Here is the input.
Amino acid sequence: MHYLDHAATTAVLPEAAAIACRVMTEQFGNPSSVHKMGIEASGILETARKQVASILNAEPSEITFTSCGTEATATAIYGACRRKGRGKHIITTAIEHSATVNTVKQLEQEGFAVTWLQPDADGHISIADLRAAIRPDTILLSCMLANNEVGTVLPVKEFGKLLKKKAPNALFHIDAVQGLARIPIKPKLWNADFISVSGHKIGAPKGIGALYIRKGVHIAPLMLGGGQERGMRPGTEAVPNIAAFGEACRIRLAQMQKNYAKVEALCAQLQEGIAQRFPWAVYNGKSDMPHVVNISFPGCKSEVLLRVLEMHDVYVSSGSACAKGKASHVLAAMQLDHTRIDSALRISFAPSNTPEDVEALLDALEEGVIRLKRN
Ligand code: PLP
Here is the structure.
């Protein structure tokens, strides 16, 4: 199997799976219970909180566990915008994940004014456009750290500085789901008030995320219930997933540089192979991260090409896994023409990939492209 769709999700690390299994079957107490089993579960929770805080360069008390990246993002955006008497203007970008796009659209329907910053043809968002968008009543800037479809990295440090200078009361949310364990996360340097992350992109199970909330920032939770997660996220904590997430953060933090170099080499191998075998193919966006490569083979519909690759046990995607076959709003915002959008493939690496995976992809692409061109 040659799995090259790690921006959609990735395998659970064996160490993370082992911890989750142990917590599920042996250390299964409820962290709110006051007996020994509960205290043990609570200890597991706090260890994981420290591990997640460590990869986020944050304090453990600034970490709230959620069910996924989407919930973390919704908590931050709704929480920031529903603070009373603050203003009605939100700034976001047209290349956000649907977790942000649809939450902001909902607020737009509720009467908030929204500025959607547009990318250039490479998939970058400009600081000048943000400067022009900030208003005295701006309450929130929500943008991603790294784009999940084209791999561009947004200038969050400059964005944060500018926002706090021009609208000191506005809050800054960063969706760092695709940047986690790839790019060092620096909440203070970036002036971030909220940072969303997700476990299943870095080797934890699906169904676990976290939200960094800067100390001193107070927002209302999405749900009411018990007092778990200091009332920010009621509901009995998913301790097995949380423990696995902590372990994945610990491992991926320790290996971050080594993993980056490995993925960089795989990306270079892919680009070399593409240049030799498909010099007519076109890259979509100027990816700033070697983990994500978006490329079109004009004339070869991506849905059909995906099936041919699948027959060779090679797995990539045609865009965001959450968009399931819908034309990419990111490529559309970059104003690429339809032939390019319809033939786009997203190839995304993890450190577990090998040069053989890249060769298998190139061979399968060659056969697929020849077959589709012939038809
Ligand atoms: N944000 C980005 C950039 C993503 O790539 C994803 C997942 O694909 C999410 C948010 C949503 O994360 P989750 O699947 O944990 O809800």
Notes: The longest strand covers residues 138-144. The radius of gyration is 21 Å. Residues 256-277 form the longest helix (22 residues). Residues 68-70, 97, 99, 144, 148, 175, 177-178, 198, 200, 209, 321-322 surround pyridoxal-5'-phosphate (CB under 6 Å).
